[in-house]
Every structure is written in structure tokens, then in C-alpha cells.
Design goal:
Low-confidence stretches of chain A: 78-102
Number of strands of chain B: 5
Order of helices and strands of chain A: HHHHHHHHHHHH
Structural class of chain B: alpha/beta
CATH architecture of the largest domain in chain A: Up-down Bundle
Largest interface: A-B, 14 and 14 residues
CATH topology of the largest domain in chain A: Four Helix Bundle (Hemerythrin (Met), subunit A)
Oligomer: heterodimer
Distance between the termini of chain A: 62 Å
CATH class of chain B: Alpha Beta
Largest sheet of chain A: none
Order of helices and strands of chain B: EHHEHEHEE
Largest sheet of chain B: 5 strands, mixed
Radius of gyration of chain B: 16 Å
Structural class of chain A: mainly alpha
Number of domains of chain A: 2
Mean pLDDT of chain B: 93
CATH architecture of chain B: 3-Layer(aba) Sandwich
CATH topology of chain B: Rossmann fold
Mean pLDDT of chain A: 83
């Protein structure tokens, strides 16, 4: 497609579209751009944003050069390989690298708060497959449960959490930066899936609800992982001590405005959904046992 | 005890000769003497430095003191550490400081300053982001982490 220099100035989605092996090289070094739904970051920015060590950066560049030359790129650096759990493998059958290991990242206090909020959002996202498998939109109880899940997404994940990101945190960075734009675009895509899922509940269109909630869940799982492992650590490296203090105060103001029961109430809601999906799974298991016994 | 006289000077070859400017913008600085109500602490980014750190770390002024307010203490030799706790809590609650950066030496006794800070802030009504910087005895930064 291009020279290495041309490739560095290309958007990652184009790089991977023309050279899928380049995506494999990045994945092998813990750069998960293949799952990004926007992909407008330039390849050169990605190398910077991911905070790769000099050795890892050289290995990534060598791997991409090998792809351009039509050769088989070498696997991940020995350091990255050592971090992988037994049995893990990369996208091309080579050993997976940093993506496979649970990273131990130290965050500044405001970033740690966002990561903590992600934990609750991930608990709801983890329930989506079971919810859409068990829901019967002709039952008022099930419709209410799905709408409660949508309310969680709108009120907690979006108005509370994403607002901290978009209205406060991202303001400390260049709004035209491809990385920031990519994350904001994913927020918009998530919002559109939620709107469609809500419309699906109103129309009792289970297929549409399942499709949009499923797409939302897949998007959020990847989005949160990239925020936790790439975006926030990069931001922590860029922010000054004083800016971290400002962020902490501004997030505290958002928490205070939301009220002391806000997070507790939405935690209770997620727990209720978890109990419901667990009970539905038990019912299904019992039914299958009875059928086998007959 | 370590003899560091054979160590090379920190300034790189070709670095301009001359005095490094002081970034200190206040007086007093010793923990027993400071007042959390002083104007330079209000909403400030504060450095609480163990006494030895500014001597060990050649770039202390430029890298850690610039733009910040200061208090210094020795957790091993100073008396009246309960007064220090009250002042740290007052910095959080009354001065409403923005951040607190605790700069300590790598020696174990210096950890007492971090523990003292954590206990004091646990008693405070307001939460403050705390960063801990550990300086090696040859002036290198061993770690710099938010608590």
C-alpha cells in the first residue's frame, strides 16, 4: 500500500484494512486497535499513546516493515511473551502478548475513580447476553427489567460517567486529537444502540432489542478495556499534578450533585438484574433436567 | 553509611554553568513553623518534603517545588508529630489544598512521613489526592506514584 512513513501517517482502520497482518503485529504487542470501531487514530499516534517502551516500539516498527516487505513478522518481544498466561495465543497463532496478561496499572485518584465506575458498568454489560436470552417482551416484568437496564446505561454509564469524561476530562486534551475523537464517537455509537434498544422494547421487537443491546455490550467491553489499559494511563502521563487535583475536585462536585444514594441505587439495580438472570438460568437448567429425565 | 565522593557530577557535559534559581515562594517552611491559614497554602499544590530530599535531589527546585507551596519535616528526628498530623488535616480541610506531594528518601524511617500523612488525611473531612515520590540516596527518583 505505502511506505513505512506513509503508513505511520495513515488512519489505523485503513492500515488494518490494507494490511491485516499489521493489526496482528499491534495485537501481539498489546495494542488492541483491531477492536476499535472508529479507527481514526494515526498509526504514529498509536505508538505514542500506548506508551510502548523503546524496545517494544522498535519491535512493532520492525514487524510492520516486515508486513510491508511481504515477510512474516517476528513474534512479540521476549518481555511481552513472558507476561502471557499458559495456553494463550495471539491472533496469528503466535503467542499473545500484553493483551493476555491482566495489567497492573497505577492510576491517579480521578482516573482510579473512573476505573471503579467501569466495574459497575461491566457488571451490567456481563448480564446482557443472559438478559436478552431470557427476556419475554410480552411480560411487563421483563420489559421493565430491560428498561431499568437502559436507564442504568443512560443515567449512570452516560449522564454520570461519560459526562465526567466528555465534559471534564477530555477538556484537558486536544479535542481534535484522533484518539479523543475516536472515544467520543464510540460514546455516540453506544447512545444510538441504546435508543434503538429502547424503541425495540416499545415495539416489543425482541430481535431488535437483542441486536442493539448485544452490540452495545460488545462495544462497551472493548471500549472500557481500551480506556482502562491505554487511554487513562496515557492521560495520567500527560496530566500535571495540579491538573490531577483539579480533576479530582471537579469529579467530587459531580458526585455531590448526583447525591449520596446515586451510586448505591444503581448498584442495587445491577444486583437485581444479576439475581434475575441467575434465577432464569436456574429455571432453564431445571427445565433441561426434566426434559432429559423424560 | 555510604561514601559517594567518587560519584560523577550530575550536570551533563556542556550544560550551562550558573546558579539554579530558587523556586521557593514562601517562608517559613518547617512544619512546626508553618500555618495552614497562610495565603500561599490556600487551594495550592503542596509539597511535604522530608528534610534530606532537597539535598539528595539536585533538581528538587525545578522538578518538584516549582509552582507549589512547601512544608518540610523529618519523621524520625522531629518531636511533636501529632502537631504535624493536625496541620496536614488543616491543609486539607481549611486551606483546601489541591494536591499533596510527599517527597521522601528511600530509607525506611522516611516511610513514617507517608504513614503520618495517610492517618492525618483519614481524619480530615475533605479528600485530597496524594502523590508519593521516593528519592534514592544518589538523587535518583525511585518511584513516583499516586496513593
Amino acid at each position: 500500500m505505502k511506505t513505512l512513513e506513509g503508513l505511520l501517517n495513515s488512519e489505523i482502520k485503513d492500515v488494518i484494512a490494507y494490511h491485516p497482518e499489521a493489526g496482528t503485529v499491534l495485537a501481539d504487542h498489546g495494542v488492541g486497535c483491531v477492536t476499535c470501531q472508529v479507527g481514526t487514530c494515526l498509526l504514529k499516534d498509536i505508538v505514542a499513546i500506548h506508551g510502548l517502551s523503546a524496545d517494544e516500539e522498535r519491535a512493532v516498527m520492525a514487524g510492520i516493515e516486515a508486513v510491508l516487505a511481504g515477510k512474516t513478522p517476528a513474534g512479540p518481544t521476549p518481555k511481552a511473551t513472558a507476561a502471557q498466561p499458559a495456553g494463550a495465543s495471539g491472533a496469528a497463532g503466535r503467542p499473545a502478548a500484553a493483551t493476555a496478561a491482566a495489567p497492573s496499572i497505577k492510576y491517579s485518584p480521578p482516573m482510579a475513580q473512573l476505573v471503579e465506575e467501569h466495574r459497575l458498568i461491566k457488571r451490567w454489560v456481563a448480564q446482557i447476553p443472559a438478559v436478552v436470552a431470557a427476556m419475554d417482551l410480552d411480560r411487563a416484568w421483563d420489559r421493565e427489567l430491560v428498561l431499568d437496564g437502559i436507564d442504568f446505561v443512560r443515567s449512570y454509564a452516560d449522564r454520570f460517567h461519560h459526562a465526567k469524561e466528555e465534559d471534564i476530562l477530555f477538556g484537558y486534551f486536544d479535542a481534535d486529537s484522533p484518539a479523543i475523537k475516536a472515544f467520543v464517537t464510540e460514546h455516540e455509537i453506544a447512545r444510538s444502540h441504546v435508543r434503538e434498544a429502547e424503541a425495540g422494547v416499545a415495539a416489543r421487537d425482541a430481535e431488535s432489542v437483542a441486536r442493539h443491546l448485544g452490540a452495545y455490550g460488545e462495544l462497551l467491553a472493548s471500549h472500557i478495556k481500551r480506556e482502562d489499559e491505554v487511554l487513562y494511563p496515557w492521560m495520567d502521563r500527560e496530566l500535571t499534578t495540579s491538573q490531577v487535583g483539579e480533576l479530582f475536585s471537579r469529579f467530587a462536585a459531580v458526585d455531590e450533585a448526583a447525591g449520596p444514594r446515586f451510586t448505591k441505587n444503581y448498584t442495587s439495580l445491577v444486583e437485581r438484574i444479576e439475581r434475575w438472570t441467575e434465577s432464569q438460568t436456574e429455571k432453564q437448567t431445571q427445565t433441561e433436567k426434566v426434559q432429559v429425565a423424560r | 553509611m555510604q561514601d559517594l565522593r567518587d560519584r560523577e557530577a550530575e550536570a551533563p557535559d556542556g550544560a550551562p554553568a550558573g546558579k539554579a534559581p530558587s523556586e521557593l515562594k514562601q517562608w517559613p517552611i518547617q512544619m512546626h513553623l508553618i500555618s495552614p491559614t497562610a495565603p500561599y497554602y490556600q487551594g495550592a499544590d503542596v509539597v511535604l518534603a522530608a528534610d534530606c530530599t532537597a539535598f539528595a535531589l539536585g533538581s528538587f527546585h525545578a522538578d518538584y517545588l516549582k509552582g507549589k507551596s512547601l512544608a518540610i519535616a523529618c519523621p524520625k528526628l522531629d518531636d511533636g508529630l501529632d502537631v504535624y498530623s493536625e496541620k496536614i488535616a488543616a491543609l486539607a480541610d481549611e486551606a483546601q489544598i489541591n494536591t499533596l506531594t510527599v517527597v521522601i528518601m528511600q530509607v525506611p524511617c522516611c516511610r513514617g512521613l507517608v504513614a503520618l500523612t495517610q492517618r492525618a488525611l483519614a481524619d480530615a473531612k475533605r479528600r485530597v489526592p496524594v502523590k508519593v515520590v521516593v528519592v534514592g540516596i544518589q538523587g535518583e527518583i525511585l518511584s513516583e506514584d499516586w496513593l
